[in-house]
Backbone:
C-alpha cells in the first residue's frame, strides 16, 4: 500500500512539464535550492536599505519583484537541477526586499500612534497567515495539478504584484533623510 502511494506521486509526471519537477537530482543537490534561496535572500536584505536609499521604494519594489519573477520562472521551467537552483537563488535575491518594504509602507500609511500599531498587527497577522496557509494550499493544489503547474501559476502572479502594487509616497524623514525615496549623496572622502 505504501509503495502504491509513492508510485502514484511518481506517475503524475505526465501532467507536469517535461523536467520541471522530476529532474532526478541527487538529494544533496536538491536541498541546495532552499540554501540558495535563503542565502541570497539574507544577502539581499543586507544591502536592501542601501538600494532603497539609492533608487527609492517604487523602483526597488518593481525591480525586486521582477527579478524574483525571473528567478521563479527559471526554477520552474529549467529541465536541469543546476539552473533551477540558480533560479531559486535569483528568486531569493529579488524577493528579499519585498516584505520589509511592505511592512515599511504599512507603517507609513498608518502614521504614528495607536493606528500604526493596529495596522501593523493586522498586516503581521495577514502575512503570518500566508506563511502558514500558503505551503498547505500549494501542496493541496500540487496534489491535483502537479507541483510544476502549481508553481508556474505563481510566476505571472508575482510579476503582476511587482508591476501593480503602488507604494505610498514618502512623507517623513529620519535624521534629514527621506524614508523610501532616492537619496543622492556625495562620495565621502577617506582622507
Residues:
Amino acid at each position: 500500500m505504501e509503495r502504491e502511494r509513492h508510485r502514484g506521486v511518481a506517475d503524475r509526471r505526465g501532467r507536469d512539464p517535461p523536467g520541471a519537477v522530476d529532474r532526478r537530482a541527487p538529494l544533496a543537490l536538491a536541498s541546495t535550492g532552499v540554501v540558495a534561496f535563503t542565502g541570497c535572500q539574507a544577502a539581499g536584505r543586507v544591502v536592501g536599505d542601501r538600494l532603497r536609499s539609492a533608487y527609492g521604494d517604487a523602483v526597488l519594489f518593481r525591480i525586486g519583484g521582477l527579478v524574483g519573477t525571473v528567478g521563479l520562472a527559471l526554477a520552474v521551467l529549467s529541465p536541469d537541477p543546476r539552473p533551477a537552483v540558480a533560479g531559486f537563488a535569483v528568486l531569493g535575491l529579488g524577493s528579499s526586499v519585498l516584505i520589509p518594504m511592505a511592512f515599511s509602507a504599512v507603517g507609513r500609511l498608518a502614521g504614528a500612534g495607536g493606528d500604526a500599531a493596529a495596522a501593523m498587527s493586522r498586516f503581521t497577522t495577514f502575512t503570518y497567515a500566508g506563511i502558514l496557509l500558503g505551503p498547505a494550499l500549494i501542496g493541496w493544489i500540487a496534489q491535483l495539478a502537479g507541483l510544476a503547474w502549481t508553481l508556474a501559476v505563481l510566476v505571472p502572479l508575482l510579476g503582476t504584484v511587482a508591476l501593480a502594487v503602488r507604494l505610498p509616497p514618502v512623507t517623513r524623514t529620519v535624521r534629514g533623510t527621506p524614508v523610501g525615496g532616492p537619496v543622492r549623496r556625495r562620495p565621502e572622502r577617506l582622507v
